Amino acid sequence: MDETLGPASPVTDRETVPQTQNRPCLVSLLTTGDPQTQLMCLVLTLQARQQGSDVFVLLCGPAGDLALNDAPEAATAPQKPNGMSPQAMLRKIQDFGGKVEVCALYMPNRGITQDALLPGILPASPSQVAARILAPDTRQITF
Question: What CATH number did the domain enclosing 48 receive?
């Protein structure tokens, strides 16, 4: 397996990107409820993953709705130009090995439990999120 992925090397299978602790990490903090902005954040996150970075998405506030099994239509409606919805892109990130969590305040303030969330999405630990953000070789984007 080739362990060097350049910027122009698309990943076609989640197994192609090796899991190592020495890779750069992108932390994507997503708070907006706007589907186009959500999708742009997630497109960039997937691109970082495809280019060999570990990725972590933290969904807070209105963006937390992307994690719901019964998500609002705005989260599941296809967007131009490729017909991908924000929730579908989020799941694609998971399929490629990205980690997705909802902020610790989301579930208690929505009055929901973890069974309302898509498979593989967990409530975040603030101390672990802070450690990820402060780790060397980590970059952060916020939308």
Answer: 3.40.1260.10
